[in-house]
Every structure is written in structure tokens, then in C-alpha cells.
Amino acid sequence: MSLLCPIDFRYGRPRMKAIFDEETRLQRLLDVEAALARAEARAGVVPTDAAKGISQHATTKEVTPARVAELEKETRHDIMAVVFALTEASGAEAGRYVHFGATSNDISDTATALQLRDAIAILDEDLATLARALADLAKKHKKTVMLGRTHGQAAVPITFGLKMAVYTAEVERHRERIVEMSKRVVVGKMSGAVGTGAAFGPKALEIQAAVMADLGIGVDEATTQVVGRDRYAEFIAVLANVASSLEKFATEVRNLQRNEIGEAAEAFERKGQVGSSTMAQKENPVNAENVVSLARVVRSLVIPAYENVALWHERDLTNSASERILFPHACVLLDEMLARSIDIFRTLRVYPERMMANLEATRGQVMSESVMIALTRKGMGRQEAHRLVRDVAMKARAEGRHLRDALKADKRVRARMTEKEIDDATRPERYVGQSEAIVASVLGKIR
């Protein structure tokens, strides 16, 4: 069989892909049908023996994907194909009660909730693993001083540990979002054709609650024919948000790996890995670039997810086809991105010596704020201090001098500061503020 989509043969890990494969999807549909029969038996709507029979045969070993596919060719209806196949497998007596009172989306939306529940569990585990990898770097490099950069330009010193702590905290926020949204996303329905539950009779709400309790998911308390698509839009949006953060982290690695910066780099296998088919010296940040590329795809899924919210009246079918693509692609690709991100930061090569060399290459210019603050503490007004340091810094750049030397030669500065005070104010390691305390705070809050 020829494979078309790259997630079939290039991207994605088996555990996540298995959640969305054809057989697992069918099994989830059968799980819902079986739970419905059991709930109806408890409510006295169908015979207990019928519910037992349906539950016993609601397995892909008996209701096979092949048989469902055959029936779908005849019916041109995916859920009715499942219903007919389960009816066949359950036998004449039990089969009479398969899908009793239900509409297609009672089954399909509830099955989707089961799939999303399993996918969310994997994504949360991935995020926890990534947070630990970032936290390890934050702890190891809490005192590793480097250039902070704003607008792509040298700013003031930070520590590499602080940079990693910022990322750790961001990942933890995503974990909170994933868990918090689950109560709105992992919900099913069993309320019939337009949400009234009429076909289930007076015990409709009892049956719906029992089905969802049986399956271990929440209940959409008020629906049309479908679960509210605002829930799914939120799900895809949160995944896109995670993808955007991963792109940010990966982009930083790509920038730090640039030859002219060289402060950190992805791991590179010396024995066999090839960076370029022609430039034999190349060590490219391929994992980081892959993360950035896939992030663009995951974010693109937000638009159809939001467009699926606005269905006609109690529903139409315009959401159906796109959702078959949205959920597996968003989950599989984000899982792939998280796996690659974990690998990047677990094995990241960090070069503190290059970080210090890049700091020194600025010839003290990045310490201008430190000097300005020192002058204000000596009684100079903040704006006056800013103008003075700016003048000295510009002159030092023009003359190719270190800022420290230019400051020592300036009478206005020397009237306020001693040589030792100037030396202290121009040492990067003395101007990283509360970086270490911030790292400790973030590490202390990791779940």
C-alpha cells in the first residue's frame, strides 16, 4: 500500500498514532455503544441480557474494520455501518437493542472524547518530561553568565539558567492549561437527534449521566445534535499555543547555534550524522528547525477548528471532514514536536566560555545600565546619569575603547565613583540581579 501523508511514515510516535488509528477509533465507537446498552439496562429501557450480549461482542475482534468498511460502502454512513456490524455480531435478540435511542454524534462525539482524553494524558506527560529537562539546565547553569539580547542586540547580562527557568515556567503554564481545559474538552453526549433526549424517554438524563460515568468522562450538559464545537476549538487553540512556545525555544537554540554566536548547540553524533550533502563540516540544528516547521502546521489548524463552531441550527456536516484531519494531526504532530524538544534540551551542548567571550566582545558596553544605576546611588539624577553614560559609551565605541577605561578617564564619572567602584559596576557577573533566586523559585514550583 502506498502511503501519502508524512505522519504515516515520517512523523509521530506509535503511542500517540495508535490513539487515532482506524481500529482504535472503531473500538472507541464500540465502547460507547456498549456503555449505552449497559446504562439503558440499568434504567430498565433494554433487557439486561441484551446489554450483556452487546457488551460482550463490542470488540474489533468481532466487529472488524473490514466488515465495517464493507457495510459503509452499502450504507454510505460510517456510524450506521458500525451499528449494523455490531448488530450482526450481537445476535438476533441482543442486536435489536444496539444504538437504541441514539443519534450518530452521540456515539462519535463521545468516542472522540475518549480519544482526546488519552491524547491529553500523553501530551501532559511529554510536557512534564520537557519541564524536567529544562529545569535540569536551569539548575546546572544558574550561575552561567551570558548576554541578554533585545531587538537582536546585546542588552544586559543574564544567566543561561534564568533563560531555561523562563522556559520551564512557560511549559508548566501549558501543563496547567491542558489539565484545566480537559474538563471542558473531555465530554460526551447521549441526548439524541437535537439534544432533547426524546428517544430515550423520561430517563434520558439518567442514561446520559450513566454512560459518561461508565466511560469516565464528563457530560456536555446542554447540546444540539453535537457536542459544542467551542470545546474542540479551545483544545486545538491550546495545542497551537504549546506549539508556539516550542517554536520559541527551538528558535533560541537555532540562534545560539549560529557560528557567530556559538553559545549553545544541538547534540551531533560524531560517528554517523551528516549535516549537509555537500558541506561536510556542517552541524545543522535539524531538530530545532523541524520543531519550527511543524509548529506552523499545528497553528494552521486553529482556523478550521474555530470555523467548525458556527454550524447551522442544531448541526450540519461541515465540521465532520475537517475534524477527521484536525485531531490526529494536531496531537500527533505536537507529540512529535515535544519529543524532539525533549531530545534537544536533554542533550544540549552549552558553551559558557563562548558566552563570556561574547560578553567581553562588547567591551563593557552592556554594563552601561549598571553604571547608570551606580551613579544614581551616588546622588546623581537618573536622567542625568543616563545622558552621561550614553555620552561616555558612544565615545568609547567611536574610539574602540573598553567602557570601563572610558569611564575612568571621564572627570564627571570620577567625581562620583572610584576606580574600584567602576570596576565593580562593569563586571557582568555582578549584574545578574535575582537570577539565581528566580531559578530557585521556578524549580520549587515544578509539579
From the spread of the alpha carbons, the general shape counts as elongated
Specify the CATH homologous superfamily of the largest domain. Fumarase/aspartase (Central domain)
Please name the CATH architecture of the largest domain: Up-down Bundle
CATH topology of the largest domain: Fumarase C, Chain A, domain 2
* Arithmetic mean of pLDDT: 95
Total DSSP helices: 21
Number of E-type strands = 6
Strand content: under 5%
CATH class of the largest domain: Mainly Alpha
User: Secondary-structure element order, as H and E?
Assistant: HHHHHHHHEEHEHEHEHHHEHHHHHHH
**Main sheet: strands, sense, barrel:** 2 strands, antiparallel
Q: N-to-C terminal Cα separation, in Å?
A: 45 Å
> Low-confidence parts, pLDDT < 50 over ≥5 residues?
none
Overall SS class: mainly alpha
Description:
The protein folds into 3 domains: 14-95, Fumarase C, Chain B, domain 1 (Orthogonal Bundle); 104-143 and 153-352, Up-down Bundle (Fumarase C, Chain A, domain 2), CATH 1.20.200; 365-425, Orthogonal Bundle (Ribonucleotide Reductase Protein R1, domain 1). By secondary structure, it is mainly α. Strands 1-2 form a two-stranded antiparallel ribbon. The chain is elongated. The longest helix is centred in the first third of the chain and has 37 residues, at 104-140. It is built from 21 helices and 6 strands. 64% of the residues lie in helices and 5% in strands.
